[in-house]
Amino acid sequence: MIAARDLVVRRGGRRVLDGVSLVLKRGMLTALAGPNGAGKTTLLSVLAGLLVPDAGGVSLEGVPLARLDRRERARRVAWLEQGARAAWGITVREVAALGRLPHGDRGEAEVAAALAACGLEALAERRVDTLSGGEARRAMLARALATGADALLLDEPAADLDPAQGFALMRLLRREADGAALRIVPGQIARLEEEVARMNGELPPLKSFVLPGGSPASAWAHHARTIARAAERATVALANAEPVNPEAVRYLNRLSDHLFVLGRWLNGRGATEVLWQPGATR
Amino acid sequence: MTPGLATLTATLSALSLLVGQAGIGVVDGAILWELRAPRTLLALGIGAGLGAAGAALQGLLRNRLADPGLLGVTGGAPLGAVLAYYSGAASVASLALPAGGLLGAAAAAGAILALASRTGTGASLVLAGIAVASLTGAAVAVALSFAPNPFALAEITVWLLGSLEDRGWREVALALPAVALGLALLLGLGRRLDALSLGEATAESLGVDVAATVRRTAAGAALSVGAGAAVAGGVGFVGLIVPNLLRFAAGERPGALLLPSALGGASLVLAADIFVRLLPLQQELRLGVLTSLLGAPMLLQLAVAQAGRS
């Protein structure tokens, strides 16, 4: 459990974080929502122990983060930097193996598992500077997973990922949070609705914290958009596997109508984010 | 890779012992012991220091164009030597020149470390290094322009060009302990530099003390390169070229480049020093001039290759 109390971070005379408190529990997937400049990245840096707040503090299982030895902290909290990339042409496996640095071992089993979880087995010996943006992003994610930390703090993990990979990432994170295997989306259209409904049912435990500058409505918009994107990605993934089934299109239309209404409702209550643009994720 | 380079270094060391103006082969025990052995040891140490420092700085700064010379580490040595020369100490004790160089290098390294430690990032190290390099360069130019007589000017200029000619055991005793200490600091940096490939923040999140790594790299580079510059003058381009050449063969992981770069640097300086001794010239071609002559086209070729790849 990570607990942050009354965090204050000042940057250039501005309070980027102003009294933020939150609790991240084991087995829980938490999304941070807020407009640009709300302090999402700053908050993650503070939670990862990389930025010392001007006031307030973060504790890990009751122990103040500042009191942990830096290697101990690195073993227990893994952090994925926004837009992280490798400066040299090192291999995907070498990138993932850096996640074992805090342990001081080679951790070949953990590295292999992390590569497999990110779908990188076939690319393991490729140099990261020859990969696409999304593939390189997954290599960085594999690095964070290979540490085997209690807490994974991911800053924009889905950036650069194609819809199928974005969906795979959501499943992966859900599995990491649950510690239990999750069913793969079946390749049959008939089960799509059931699958998304299940996803809908699963998402409510996803907790959203709204940073100053955002509103509860924005958090809801973010939440709803997550569902919508997942559904769209599922459809895209299916369409890649088999010819597009009219039933899937009908289902997606129904979902988008629903989201449109929800979006109007949320905008009326101060949501600042665009809720749903069909096809925008492609 | 490493065994091959080690063999090359050993072969060149043996060759360096067997080559000289007195002839090829073991000509005389005194020549071997008093002239060629210290010269070979110095070439080994200076080359290894330059190679390892170049690899470490490039890894730290995530930039293949980083060079110990550009970072001011070598700037202090000529200034110290010039001051020692002008103060008249050089006419009293022949060791004054390298000792002055050593003091100058230490002062420059201290200034760079103090400046870079304030923020503890690679970028601040570059800024501090460039500032110190420009300052020492300007100070040397001032000193040269006020040279007491043309002979002084000529002598100092020739010293600045860099050479291992007539260096003996005293120079070895002066420089090699510092070089060895610097190498020890640099060669242990491997995994930390690997982590820095992903950026300073990510390295920090992996438990690496980035500020301490910057300090250790700067100190290691200053010791291993500064001490060499103090006794041999400027030997350019080795620190820049060797890691870049080895990247093609040994891969780009910074930690895996440190030891090969030390060996490669030693090989390159040994080979260059053997070459200048073999050239049938009246005046020995300066080692520093030769490495720069070889290095500049290599750098150009590298830049063209890189531009073609991206």
Model description:
The complex is a heterodimer of chains A (282) and B (310). By secondary structure, chain A is of the alpha/beta class. Chain A has three domains: 1-68, 3-Layer(aba) Sandwich (Rossmann fold); 70-161, Rossmann fold (3-Layer(aba) Sandwich); 183-282, no CATH class. Chain A has helices at residues 40-47, 70-76, 92-97, 108-117, 133-146, 163-178, 192-202, 216-241, 246-268, and strands spanning 2-11, 14-24, 30-33, 55-60, 63-64, 77-80, 151-154, 207-210. In chain A, the strands form three sheets. A four-stranded antiparallel β-sheet of chain A has the order 2-1-4-5, covered by helices on one side. The longest helix of chain A is centred in the C-terminal third of the chain and has 26 residues, at 216-241. Chain A is globular, with a radius of gyration of 20 Å. The two termini of chain A are 36 Å apart. Residues 179-193, 202-206 and 275-282 of chain A have low confidence and may be disordered. Chain B has 310 residues and is mainly alpha-helical. Chain B has one domain (48-309): ABC transporter involved in vitamin B12 uptake, BtuC, CATH 1.10.3470. Chain B contains 14 helices and no strands. Chain B has helices at residues 2-18, 29-61, 76-86, 89-92, 96-117, 122-145, 150-161, 169-187, 190-196, 200-205, 210-232, 238-250, 254-278, 287-309. The mean pLDDT of chain B is 85. Classes of the chains: A alpha/beta (282), B mainly alpha (310).
User: What is the CATH superfamily classification of chain B?
Assistant: ABC transporter involved in vitamin B12 uptake, BtuC
Sheet of most strands of chain A: 4 strands, antiparallel
Shape of chain A: globular
Order of SSEs of chain B: HHHHHHHHHHHHHH
